Amino acid sequence: MTDMPDTTLTGDPSHDAPADHGDDAAGYYTPGDPIRDTKAPEGPIDERWQTRKFEARLVNPANRRKLDIIIVGTGLAGASAAATLGEAGYNVKSFCYQDSPRRAHSIAAQGGINAAKNYKEDGDSAHRLFYDTVKGGDYRSRESNVYRLAEVSTNIIDQCVAQGVPFAREYGGLLDNRSFGGVQVSRTFYARGQTGQQLLIGAYQAMERQVAAGTVEQFTRHEMLELIVVDGKARGIIARDMVTGEIQTHLADVVVLASGGYGNVFFLSTNAMGSNVTAAWRAHRKGAYMANPCYTQIHPTCIPVTGSHQSKLTLMSESLRNDGRIWVPKKKSDCEKDPREIPEEDRDYYLERIYPSFGNLVPRDIASRAAKNVCDEGRGVGPEVDGVRRGVYLDFSSAIERLGRDGIEEKYDNLFDMYARITGENPYETPMRIYPAVHYVMGGLWVDYDLQSTIPGLFVTGEANFSDHGANRLGASALMQGLADGYFVLPHTIRDYLADGPFEKIQESHPAVVEARQAVEERVTHFLSTNGTRSVDSYHRELGNIMWEYCGMERTEDGLKKAIDLIRTLKDDFWRNVKVLGTADSLNQSLEKAGRVADFMELGELMCIDALNRRESCGGHFRGESQTEDGEALRHDDQFAYVAAWEFAGDGELPVLHKEDLVYTAIEMKQRSYK
Amino acid sequence: MKVTLKIWRQPDAASKGAMHTYELDGVSSDMSFLEMLDVLNEDLIAKGEDPVAFDSDCREGICGMCGLMINGQAHGPEVTTTCQLHMRSFKDGDEIVIEPWRSDAFPVIKDLVVDRSAFDRIIQAGGYISVNTGSAPEAHSVPVPRDDAIRAFNVATCIGCGACVAACPNGSASLFMGAKITHLGELPQGQPERDTRVVGMVAQHDAEGFGGCTNIGECTAACPKEIPLDVISRLNWDLHAALRHGR
Amino acid sequence: MRDARASRSTITLKLLMAASGLLFILFVLLHMYGNLKAFSGHDAYNEYAEHLRTLGEPMLPFEGFLWIQRTTLVVALVVHVYAAATLWRRARGARTQRYVMKKNLASSFSSRWMRWGGLTILLFLIWHLVQFSFGKVNVAGGETNDPYNLLVDTFETWWMTLIYLAAMFALGMHLHHGTWSAAQTLGLTNNVRARRNAKSLGWILAVVIAGGFSLVPICVLAGVITK
Predict the structure, then answer these.
(1) Which N-terminal stretch is annotated as signal sequence (chain B) (predicted)?
(2) Taking CB atoms and an 8 Å limit, are C101 and B243 in contact across chains?
(3) Are B217 and B125 contained in the same domain?
(4) What is the pLDDT of residue B85?
(5) B172 touches chain A (CB under 8 A)
(6) Which CATH number is C143's domain given?
(7) Which chain B residues are Cβ-neighbours of C19 within 8 angstroms?
(8) Which residues of B touch C99 (CB under 8 A)?
């Protein structure tokens, strides 16, 4: 398998010598000891998982029902883990803030799920999927984890098919595959544009089966508000019943966070309204390191903002860029005109101009950044929101001429319908308007090979952890990772930890439990008694604007420092001046949001510090100071080939940076080029 | 534009609710319906009044969390979810009546928020294929005729929003159940549990207090995913088969 | 639900409803056909009425077939009404808090009127049996032991014809939705085409049966059928 040259990284001579600059983030953090994953076995990369599975201790079936597992989140990673651990006979408690586990935001994933089945016999293999994923992540992911992901990907498909997931099939009745996100093999399994939905329903049904069997107890409309750590180990959570307002203590032997990503720190994103960082952030404050929080994926083809009322952004499949041409007017004075009246010579097909060989198909981050640049120049189109037109045209007129309207309908009809429904414009007649939006975060809580965080007994799966996608995620890989973690990885690694259990029973009167509970109650009381003048949403919106402006597609030292100041001021004001009405003992959506926004503020600051520290451009992270003469992202492997794992040092204290060096034995680091 | 909103307000499950009237100005036709309610809530908060509670999450029409009765129609005048309904479907000066789903099996929690956990319990009663993780055979070992796979997919797009129940004069959840029965029943993997699945799910449906189906078709007209009535026929057929098999 | 039984479900009630409904469809179809004998005149009609009593002889005793048929129909009626009443009660219990505003989008008037329409037909049925089978009531005051003359006397009274026409309208409506609904409940409409066919069949049966029944009273009133 390992036919790739074994090269340990020592810095890439092709790079420009690192610019002589100081530590950008000096004064914003405290340097800490290096951190290392101690769980991945040594040896050839394709044998590590087998070895780990064998070495991880077993739990006697008779003991399993005495072991309590809390799982927070019911998306692909959470529901699949709940189902699998329930089947194994553990006592699982599953929490979600939605009214049903089936509504977790994994459901919105459109494109597909990768798996190295090689059904097309086009040269795919676990090794190639591994290679593509590491390369796609711009060499900022941990190779052992990624290899394992590629390896178990095939089991996921078998499992889902057996559960009745209706994947697309060919006439012969076998599964269909397509190529996705620019890779050269067809390894993406899909269920029309609703793959996430179908996979989640499969996992949800498997979990409901365990609810019926009595191994899983589900707590819907419950929000985790604090982690309980006793003697250095995660032993439970404090949750709020969102209907009655009751603050509940749930104790367990182990806690799993599968609580998703934190893209909503930007206020506007493609995430669900309720997606939040609270579970992860509370764990971070209790000792779990947060890794690479600045790695954000921004998706270029979303429907633009129409006004200050906008609550969320809707993604449209990237496949639209296969046939649509992206342009803006050359002259600012044309921006208000009907696009059909702007003659060809007055249009700037900027991607085709700047990147002649890839044109409209440049990677997500490049397309996104270019769109922001032209809009910042004042050449954006569509409605003016806060003084700027944020939109570029995605024009299908030449494709319609070439393929005919029928041809376009066949390929994109559902997307065109969706666009028309949301915007009220007919994309067959006028060009679509698109703009980038925050879509996914690669950063998350730091975990080792076992998916265990720096708090023993706290495991983190899915988008909530950091491990597999590096600085950028490939299309159709998020679903793969969520299910790999939940079905096939965590159930094996968690047993090694649980083999020491059941742990000593703790009482609700234990000081650590009482402290956690009080902290939650105090926060609730604070929000309800502040009686300020501004709504929670207005703070969230402002935080989002700061993040988008300074920690969005392009980040600079000055901008990030400014953002940190702005966030600190905003946070201060928030705690003194927020207005939350209603009571604690009923459904109170403002109160729920207040807690989430409070945590987003702290996270936002850390994201900026992380981005400030990483004076290089990699994947979804673009530092203005680190680009080639042509404006291309420039990595600095000699300085930044590490995972930045941040430790919370206390309120008002500087975060502590622990570096995990990334060592590649099965792949060689290369700089990308799309010219 | 300006609209008059008549909204059901109910502080909690135990209290009695009533319709309240609100005037809202400055509504843009580009707003989604829920964004319009967000704006109303910001106004209410500014005035020190309790904002209107309503459910929504993905706001892109797929999670099934949102669902309001708008002017007597589940999810409003378009065939889509409430979150995908836009204010351009209304005119300046319109009066809009907003109520929660009405079903005794979906008790109101607050204002426009209802408890749909009955749907989870129906799924728990058999809406799955029993296959433990790791015990699945190789995916290509069982080919599935393409048309069957397509039909299974089409009905598996149900988002569990509850509009079918809300629209049904009998308060029946037959369309929801039929969609799951048909999805799993179309596939070879779903055959072994076909009888127990339908019997379990229907028994749970009845125990939850949903009404019986009278095949009148309001559900399918309200369904944002356009699940067809055929699935109820399939549900009935499967129940017969279970009866014949002595279940 | 571990103790779940298919036989105790609402769908089983509906199956019973569909099965009994199909018996009624068969019955009204034959009944309507028999009524058209009125166009053949007094003797042919009365002979047909008499023949019904001797049908199946000598295997069956006098009126044997009629009693078998009556028993079957009474059982079917009890089942049909019981199932309807139970489901009606369930439906009322499923939504105790009504909507302030509710629009009907897809349902036909006939489908929404099944219960009240059914009740109308039931009341009519009682009157009809009193008038023609058990009680033999001649509203015109004439003889009651001659079926043909009783028929003509009845429908020469304009308001009797009106009552019967109204009842036939109710029956037509009931058949229109009932036929399709039975097909759906029996699980025979598992695709678009079958669904369309079942709906068409509903229309056809409604028009043929209600229309066929209505011809006789109309023609009596119009003077086409006379003593």
Answers:
(1) none
(2) no
(3) yes
(4) 97
(5) no
(6) 1.20.1300.10
(7) none
(8) 69, 72, 99, 102
Domain range spanning residue C196? 10-89+113-221
> Does one domain contain both A282 and A207?
yes
A165: number of Cβ within 10 Å: 30
pLDDT over 80 (residue A7)? no
Inter-chain touch B57–A103, beta carbons under 8 Å: yes
- In sequence order, the 6+-apart residues with CB closer than 8 A to the CB of C116 are none
Given CA atoms A74, A75, A77, A83 in this order, what sign does their dihedral have? positive
Q: Which of B58, B26, C23 is nearest to A109 (CA)?
A: B58
Q: How far apart are CA A105 and CA A101, in angstroms?
A: 10
The pLDDT of residue A673: 65
Residue A460: alpha-carbon gap to chain centroid: 13
Residue C19 is assigned to a structural domain of this protein:
yes
Identify whether the C-beta of residue C153 lies closer than 8 Å to the C-beta of residue C139.
yes
Nearest CA in chain A to B113: A587
Asked if C4 and B205 come within 8 Å (Cβ–Cβ), the reply is no
The dihedral sign for the CA sequence A452, A458, A461, A467: negative
Residues in chain A: 675
For residue A327, the distance in angstroms to the closest alpha carbon of chain B comes to 23
Overall residue count recorded for chain C in this entry: 227
Condensed to tens digits (0 to 9), the pLDDT of residues B87-104 reads: 999 999 999 999 999 999
Q: How many beta-carbon pairs below 8 A join chains A and B?
A: 217
Which residues of chain B does A80 touch, with a Cβ-Cβ cutoff of 8 Å? 133
Question: Nearest-CA distance from B78 to chain C in Å?
Answer: 12
CATH number of the domain residue B43 falls in: 3.10.20.30
pLDDT, one tens digit per residue, over A340-357 is: 999 999 999 999 999 888
Tokens of C82: 């019981």
Closest approach of chain B CAs to the CA of C35, in angstroms? 31
Do B135 and B106 share a structural domain?
no
Map residue A188 onto helix, strand or coil: strand
Count structural domains, chain A. Answer: 3
Domain that holds residue B233: 116-244
Nearest neighbour of B236 by CB, restricted to C11, C93, C191: C11
The model's pLDDT over A98-149, given as tens digits with 9 standing for 90+, comes to 999 999 999 999 889 999 999 999 999 999 999 999 999 999 999 999 999 9
In a domain, A10, yes or no: no
Residues A345 and A461 in one domain: no
Average pLDDT over residues A373-385: 92
B73 and B156, same domain (yes or no): no
**Chain A residues within an 8 Å CB radius of B160:** 100, 102-103
Measured between CB atoms, which of B31, B58, B132 is closest to A107? Answer: B58
What is the ipTM score, two decimals?
Answer: 0.98
Q: Touching A: which chains, 3+ CB pairs < 8 A?
A: B
Q: Do B31 and A309 touch (CB under 8 A)?
A: yes
Contact assignment for C100 to B247 by CB distance below 8 Å: no
Helix (H, G, I), strand (E, B) or coil at A289: coil
Considering only CB atoms, B73 lies closest to which of C98, C105, C183, namely C105
B12 touches A: beta carbon within 8 Å: yes
The active-site residue out of A64, A187, A364, A390 is A364
Residue type, B111: D
Which of B103, B101, B123 has its CA nearest to residue B113?
Answer: B101
Domain span at A139: 30-295+442-498
pLDDT in tens, chain C (227 residues): 557 888 889 999 999 999 999 999 999 999 999 999 999 999 999 999 899 889 888 899 999 999 999 999 999 999 999 999 999 999 999 999 999 999 999 889 999 999 999 999 999 999 999 988 887 888 888 888 889 999 999 999 999 999 999 999 999 999 999 999 999 999 999 999 999 999 999 999 999 999 999 999 999 999 999 98
Spatial separation of the C-alpha atoms in residues C97 and C102, rounded to whole Å? 12
Q: Give the CATH number of the domain where residue B219 resides.
A: 1.10.1060.10
Beta bridge partners of residue B98, listed in sequence order = B7, B70
Known active-site residue A672: no
Number of domains in chain B: 2
Residues A231 and A308 in one domain: no
